[in-house]
């Protein structure tokens, strides 16, 4: 996610205008309003982009001088639910970087927020950092590998212009939170908690692709209501706030270089 090396195309290296943006989203409910907003079209057959057998879905189109690819990991082939979580997110991000060669990745989605850290329902955060909270390996150095903390691309100008909050993001493969997770999230100093971000960050970093993380709060983790219930109650309304924020982010990116962000 740091600005990449010189063998990268100009835009990814920070000097040319950004032309290809990859939006990675975990859930269909989060993805479809953005598909409509940016007037993206389905890119069938998916096998022409992704290996046969992968349930991953890609939409694409041109918007304000940018080529946008929006990918989501699709439905679990057996259970029919959205393929949320780190494994699917990492795989679809990996394949998309290889096939689509984006200049910038936007991982957009919903998240749990900590009111003790200033989060409220409907807030949209730009994550300054991403780390894992459920990869406990209590051996020196492996412990740090497990946490996998990374800085995201710094976007000082975007933050000045857009009305987004800033906070650290902690990622794990569960919607609920065990006491172990809670301690690790506190150690990560996180304000928001999701199930994909740090995995997308890991892959983006591997291939020196700048990445930003736009996370809208559907539920308050340190509040009274059960997370799953609160998440489902707020999903549709908060998705509207997420779409609004992602649109503003993409509008801001249009015509700029990575180093202008
Ligand atoms: N029952 C839900 C399951 C979605 S899982 C359904 O209707 O399908 C939750 C998704 O929202 C994940 O993609 C995750 O990144 C995000 N999310 C929202 N609130 C979260 C929280 N409190 N903890 C972890 N992930 C959360």
Automatic annotation (TrEMBL):
Domain of life: Eukaryota
GO biological process terms held by the UniProt record: L-methionine salvage from methylthioadenosine; nucleoside metabolic process
SUPFAM superfamilies attached to this UniProt entry: Purine and uridine phosphorylases
Nucleoside phosphorylase domain ranges (all copies): 20-250
Pfam family, one: PNP_UDP_1
Stretches that traverse the bilayer: none
Gene Ontology MF term list: methylthioadenosine nucleosidase activity
Protein name listed in UniProt: Nucleoside phosphorylase domain-containing protein
